[in-house]
Amino acid sequence: MIDFSLPQETQMLLETLRRFIREELQPHEAEVEEKQYVRPELARELRTKAKELGLFAMGLPEEVGGGGLSTVDMCLCEEEFGFTKDALVRRAFGAIPTSLLNCVGEQRDKYLLPTVAGEINVALGMTEPNAGSDAAGIKTAARRDGDDFVINGSKHFISDADLADAFIVTAVTDPSKGAKGISAFLIDRDTPGFTIGRIQYMMGLRATNHCELVFEDARLPQSQMLGPEGSGLFQALSTINQVRLGMVGGRAVGMARKLMQLSIDYANERKQFGQKIGDFQMVQAMLADMATEIFAARMMVLNAAWETDQGMDPRAKVSMVKYYASEMLGRVADKAVQIYGGMGYCREMPLEQLYRDARVYRIFDGASDIHRAVIARSLLKNGEMSL
What are the Acyl-CoA dehydrogenase/oxidase N-terminal domain coordinates in residue numbering (predicted)? Predict the structure, then answer.
């Protein structure tokens, strides 16, 4: 018999998190959506309150000052994050690149520990105009010059770049080695030759700003390399499964749950032709489809997260989660707008924002088509997976 019940401490954590989101974050959603930024004083206030409750950097190890949550617990927290705006989640609970854990020596004191403590912000700079899902296809180059590296190139779609104090940037250090010739560097915001470009405003995720990064002979000492030379892509990929499970899988489930609850409430209130629209079988069918798909995605997320916590490597399963959960969210969002009708298309209602926010989940951290290819290759190589 499999026990799917949650430990009491996990239940208490989730209840604290729900209350914090409901009382501290959701009241600011309309302002953040309209202004497309989180006021600095509000961000500081939210972060301070979250830290007091032990809700900051929850997914980072305890030995560096984080909450030390398991992958399962972090996915459950991410599910709750889906009930509010991404920008508010980032400001309150942190958005810390886990590859910072590769910091050593003075790097830990300058970058890792202050970031986990919420004193500075560090952003991850990998994506380039011609290298999105193909992370190994980057062109930004780091040329060795004596004891230094000189970086030239550009990045785009870099989340929180407008707020970051420092960045983890990938660059090619040895073109002859392909993916093994990519290294990671820690670069401060004020480094000569490094410029943070324009904000690239998006269709959704407003206030989670994305920017261009430009490198023109930006010189860095060897000490700014993160991890061994040639390990930059490996560092990113070694932690990306947990990101895909939590920030994509768990978050998609939470957003879908919010959309379904809004749809249920509306179906019970809205009347057409003299009766509640929830009495119509077509509306009932859409609600049933929502609930079934959300349940399936949630079980997928938690199963793959549990295997991760057991030290297993459920790579193909994580691709299934990323693919299915993101596509599920798109279908649920579409059905929710359909149930609301014209009001669902109106900016006065939350559906319009959630519909826009949902679309990118099928793109970032590997587009759905990429993950379908990963799943297929695994099947062709290994045969039927043990599920």
Answer: 8-119
276: β partners: 271
Q: What is the CATH number of the domain that holds 99?
A: 1.10.540.10
51's tokens: 């830290």
| Average pLDDT value for residue range 320-344 | 97
Dihedral-angle region of residue 153 (phi above 0 means left; psi in -120 to 50 means alpha; beta otherwise): left
- Is the pLDDT assigned to residue 305 strictly greater than 60? yes
pLDDT confidence of residue 384: 74
Residues of the chain above pLDDT 90, percent = 88
Cα–Cα distances in angstroms (integers) from residue 264 to residues 259, 260, 288, 326, in the given order: 9, 6, 10, 21
Q: Are strands 148-159 and 141-145 parallel, antiparallel or unpaired?
A: antiparallel
Quote the pTM value: 0.94
Residue 245 is given by DSSP the state: I
What is the rounded end-to-end Cα distance, in angstroms, of the chain?
Answer: 16
> Are 217 and 306 part of one and the same domain?
no
**Counted domains in the chain:** 3
Structural contact between residues 32 and 207, judged by C-beta atoms closer than 8 angstroms: yes
More confident residue, 37 or 241: 37
- The verdict on residue 387 lying in a domain is no
What does the alpha-carbon distance between residue 203 and residue 166 come to, in Å, rounded to a whole number? 26
Q: How far apart are CA 273 and CA 93, in angstroms?
A: 46
User: One-letter amino acid identity for 253?
Assistant: V
Q: Are residues 218 and 259 in the same domain?
A: no
Domain for residue 297, yes or no? yes
**Residues 175, 161: contact at Cβ < 8 Å?**
no
Rounded to the nearest 5°, which phi and psi values hold at 38? -105, 120
How far, in Å, CA of 178 to CA of 364, rounded?
23
